[in-house]
Structure formats: C-alpha cells, structure tokens
Design goal:
Largest sheet: 9 strands, antiparallel
Number of helices: 2
Order of helices and strands: HHEEEEEEEEE
Oligomer: single chain
Structural class: alpha+beta
Strand content: 25-35%
Number of strands: 9
CATH class of one domain: Mainly Beta
C-alpha cells in the first residue's frame, strides 16, 4: 500500500511539473512573438501595395505616359502683331527731285551735277520720270574760279531717261546756267536761264 501511494504521489508531482512547464512556455512565446510548438500559426499580414510614379515604372519596363495638363490650364499664345499700315503715297509736291527743278510743260525738268557732269531729267506732274523730249541740249556757264564761260553738250543716256553732259563741272557749284533744248531737225525747243546751286 505504501508503495502504491508513493508511486501515485510521484505521478501527480510529475503531472503538476509538466503542466507548470507548459504554462511557462506559453507565456514566454506570447511575449517574444515566437509561437509555441503546439500553438496555431498566424498568417503574416500582406505588405501594403506601393504605387510607383509613372517615370519609375518606365525604368522597370512599365509604360510611361506623359502627364496631361489640367483642363483649366490657360495656354499662353503670343499676341498677334497688328498689320503694318499701308504705305501712303506722298503728294507730288513733296517728292524731291535731284538738283534744281524748273517747271516744264505741266511737269518738271531737273538739272543736277552727278559724277562731275550735268544730268538733265524730265518728270510729269506727279514727278514720275519720263523719257527726254529733246535729242540733245547745250549748257553754258561761268565757273566762279575760272575766267570765261564753260560749255557742255548733253546727249541721251540711261535708255533715254536723261541727257548727260560731256564736260567736267568745277566746284564751287554756284553759278548761272544758260540751257538750250534742241529737238528733231535741230529745232530749238526752248532756252532757260537757271540759277544753279548745289
């Protein structure tokens, strides 16, 4: 009987020690996060989805799309330049003529010194260049620094748009010119006395 009681006490003590060890192990695993061998495993939480920018997706093989501007974004456009005003036609009396201008048959005649010689041109009332009506002209003048008269014959040039002299005109260009126009059959078309100054 004593032997049986002793064995029973030993079994009870062993059972109590086993239960105590089991409770200690469960407490330790719940504190450290390590599941006990008999405890059911908890499923790990799924990681949160990370959305990469479109540029980053392109680096990793994704399709990059350009960012669309907002609908209310204003587009800056350069202001249209105003059309240039049409060039106004100057009145005939304001169009300058070369040299000295003389009225001639409803138009104008101008005498100028260009490249050292006389140039005689003819214009209509609107001061547009005309073909010369004379076949030649003669000019006579008294240079300020020379004794006596100088003479020049002016012949057609520039496709009949001017009569050009053949004598060098010495400066200073301030003297009186006696000009004679000669037409067909050597008929005198007119004679003019011009106070020339240039």
């Amino acid at each position: 009987m004593k032997l049986g009681a002793t064995v029973l006490k030993t079994l009870l003590l062993a059972f109590a020690m086993g239960a105590l060890l089991a409770l200690t192990a469960n407490a330790a695993s719940s504190t450290s996060g390590i599941p006990s061998p008999g405890a059911p495993r908890r499923s790990a939480a799924a990681p949160a989805a990370v959305t990469l920018p479109e540029a980053s997706n392109a680096r990793f093989g994704g399709k990059a799309t350009a960012a669309k501007p907002s609908a209310d974004a204003s587009t800056a456009t350069p202001d249209a330049k105003p059309a240039a005003p049409a060039a106004e036609r100057r009145p005939a009396e304001e169009i300058p003529l070369p040299g000295v201008s003389i009225p001639y048959e409803g138009g104008w005649m101008s005498l100028a010194v260009e490249s050292g010689v006389f140039h005689l041109r003819f214009y209509d009332a609107k001061r547009e260049l005309l073909r010369v009506p004379a076949i030649r002209a003669t000019a006579r003048w008294n240079p300020p620094l020379k004794t006596g008269f100088s003479r020049s014959v002016l012949l057609p040039a520039n496709e009949g748009r001017a009569l050009v002299g053949n004598t060098f005109v010495r400066p200073p260009l301030r003297f009186r010119v006696f000009l004679t126009l000669i037409g067909a059959d050597d008929q005198v078309m007119g004679s003019y006395s011009i106070d020339f100054e240039s």
